[in-house]
Amino acid sequence: MLPATRNGLLLIGVLFHLVYLLSIFDIYFRSPLVHGMTPHRAALTPPAKRLVLFVADGLRADKIYEPYHNETSGKTEELAPFLLNKLRTEASWGVSHTRVPTESRPGHVAAIAGFYEDVSAVTKGWKMNPVEFDSVFNESRHTWSFGSPDILPMFAHGASDRSRVDTYMYTSEFEDFSGNGDRLDTWVFDEAEKFFGRATAGSALHTQMHEDQVVFFFHLLGIDTNGHGFKPYSQEYLGNIRHVDRGIRRLVDHFEEFYGNDGQTAFVFTADHGMNDRGAHGDGHPDNTRTPLIAWGAGVAKPAPLAAGQTAPGHDGFSQPWGLGSYERKDVNQADIAPLMTSLIGLNYPLNSVGTLPLAYLDTSRKYRAHSALANALQVLEQYRVKHDQKQHTEMFFKPYAPMHQPTNMPEHMLARIQQAISAEKFDDAEAECLQLIALCLEGLRYFQRYDWLLLRSIVSAGYLGWIAYSLLYIFGEYILPDSSPRRSQRSGTIAVLGLVVFAAFSAMFYRQGSPAMYYAYAAFPVYFWAGVLQQVPLVRQIAASYTQLAVRWRPAAFVGVYVVILEALVYAYFDRRVYSAAFALLALVWPLAVSPRFRREHTALLGLWSGVCLLTSVFTLLPVERNDHLGLVIVGGALITLSGVAA
């Protein structure tokens, strides 16, 4: 089964690696979304009739919360006085923790639909979702959205009724990253004012806006644009925060005036992702994953009074410099924002949401809180049951999620205890039981999402190991031990038949489970490679015999061991850059100590330079990853590069 020519080996190798590259998508980039769930909501009157959502694209939490020292005036001031005044007087607030990829589309999906990015959307460049999903907008009676053409269309396209979501967008050409981005937010605020101007008394729009369960969404892209163009510590970025704060204040006044201060409006302000000091985002750096969340209005809990000198719960070293220690910090996961908005205006929970209702944000009756938590639990449980049934229907050797089958954790028993607690008005017990059921269901969803991981990763690992052995045997047989004979086992035919039987067994299992066609290819390669290896057992024996005849110092085992250690160190360096510092420090010693004494005496200066440069380089990976622009360092670096070029 080994290829007769070098070109044959290369062809098999290229085909193998192309196919196995696709295995990444089948293992890690499968959509977590399921369909066929029954919607759930709290069957009680909600605290708010309407919801207003502001999303400041690219705003990291510390930039809005921390005091800003104005070097021009020499004074310390707040960049968002209106929002921070709401925080101190009538809002619940905290940090919303996002997940990678920290991009605009995934962040909006998490906040509005309640689930973390469908990773299969990587094939669409994070722009459109390859699978339909539910959202707060889709569950609303009507949604009016204002902002960027990069974000608004995906929620309008995903709505079950396209007329339910209206979009007011500027053109793509208007998004100019070379200029000040606050004009994008100015467009949104101006368009919103025109919108209110059209809602005259007696008009259809006026009537529609006074219905319940309506949503207003304002996507503010200017901060993100200025962060990319000028960095998040620039005057443009910080000034845009002031601009957004003033614009939101103006809009809130419009809402209160339009609705006659009826106290039926809930407001939520947040961001899709943050931004690092380099003006970028996408990875899991804390500056990218920590975003603000401020909610106020109907149904939202107000700050609790606190005795002088006391620090409210929730604070840590991150929020210590903000001067907000008297106000409880209520952190949430970004997907929790969708259940919060759902509960405030009494919608069905988005069918694909994996968020947990942050009960600490609610100022409603205890009964409404408990019923909202129950609806949240039922909605997540629906997803678990669909995933469970799908796997049970297709898997030949199905293994359920064990914790959900323990007597005390069975959903039916937990739901019965929740209903009993609500009936007995033991609402705290009901809420705690709901949170436990949600946590179990989320773990169960992760279990079924990764159900095939062990099988697929085992097949892929066997394939790569088989390719290594397969190609090495060809190299040994053709170039290192070309005269060795015999090479093939006398049972080659039997081994080939056995390989076909193994592949047929895998194929039958994949067919029974309705697996994708690529699964057959993943299984074919390890079977082919290892069958070829087993057919070359005589050659393996000859290689082993040749190895034992080598002098001890030339045996490759030690080199293989060192090679494995180096590879493992390189992998670990992805998580801790200090590994490179240790490696450079080691290199500073290895070469000077490995050379002969004569070379050491004749080239002392060269060896000293080598050690010095290695030690100097080792300092680099100890420095912070994120660093602000420093013109002086840039000039010095350029001068050193020029001098080194001249010297060379």
In short, what is this structure?
The protein has helices spanning 6-28, 61-65, 81-89, 104-113, 136-139, 152-157, 182-198, 204-209, 222-230, 235-258, 286-289, 337-345, 366-394, 411-423, 427-449, 453-480, 492-513, 518-534, 537-549, 557-573, 578-594, 597-602, 604-620, 631-647; strands spanning 50-56, 68-70, 75-77, 91-97, 142-147, 165-169, 214-220, 265-270, 290-297, 332-333. With 648 residues, the chain is of the alpha/beta class. The radius of gyration is 31 Å and the shape is globular.
Number of E strands: 10
Work out the helicity level.
Answer: 40-55%
Indicate the overall shape.
globular
Please state the average pLDDT score: 91
Strand content: 5-15%
Multimeric organization: single chain
Q: Tell me the distance between the termini.
A: 54 Å
Number of helices: 24
Walk me through the structure:
Helix 6 (152-157) links the parallel strand 5 and strand 6 (165-169). An eight-stranded mixed β-sheet has the order 6-5-7-1-8-9-4-10, with helices on both faces. A two-stranded antiparallel sheet has the order 2-3. With 648 residues, the protein is of the alpha/beta class. The mean pLDDT is 91. The protein is built from 24 helices and ten strands. It is 53% helix and 8% strand. Helix 9 runs antiparallel to helix 10 and helix 21 (578-594) runs antiparallel to helix 23 (604-620). The chain has helices at residues 6-28, 61-65, 81-89, 104-113, 136-139, 152-157, 182-198, 204-209, 222-230, 235-258, 286-289, 337-345, 366-394, 411-423, 427-449, 453-480, 492-513, 518-534, 537-549, 557-573, 578-594, 597-602, 604-620, 631-647, and strands at 50-56, 68-70, 75-77, 91-97, 142-147, 165-169, 214-220, 265-270, 290-297, 332-333.
